[in-house]
Give the backbone structure.
Amino acid sequence: MSEPIVAPPVAIVMGSQSDWPTMQRAAEMLDKLSVAYDARIVSAHRTPDRLVSFAKGAADEGFKVIIAGAGGAAHLPGMVASMTHLPVLGVPVQSKALSGQDSLLSIVQMPAGIPVGTLAIGEAGAANAGLMAAAILAISDAGLADRLKALRAEQTAAVAERPA
Ligand code: RP5
């Protein structure tokens, strides 16, 4: 009997191809932890129909956590969150005009009722979104929890006591 096809638990969506260098940091963290993901470009402004069909169908597709990154007037994470009950982690991509302050404020200031878990601006936020997605999944996956703890221990061991 063939193995059942298991959908990747994490969706990484971003507003533009130009967000990918930032959002790749989330993908790298998930790779390190052997968590499967699907990365897609879904723009709130340029591909609104794609946004609606992705967000409304995400749970049925088998996703468990969504990481959404966008820059500037960054409506993507909030719009996705408005159409799914899945946890949405928002990554403010560093914009050219306002260094990501615009992205941050437009993602973090959600009105009560529709939460977006907002991370830091830029690559650190994307990396932490990957780790946070893994931590959410690790609640019900002991093997992943062990891999997450091992990654933390590795990180701790890599910090020298004194500067070189
Ligand atoms: C947003 O506009 C995207 O998330 C991106 O951060 C920003 C700029 O997009 P491009 O003009 O580079 O496609 O929608």
Notes: The two ends are 56 Å apart (CA to CA). The mean pLDDT is 97. Residues 15-16, 18-19, 43, 45, 70-72, 93 surround 5-O-phosphono-beta-D-ribofuranose (CB under 6 Å). Helices lie at 20-32, 48-61, 76-82, 101-108, 123-138, 142-157.
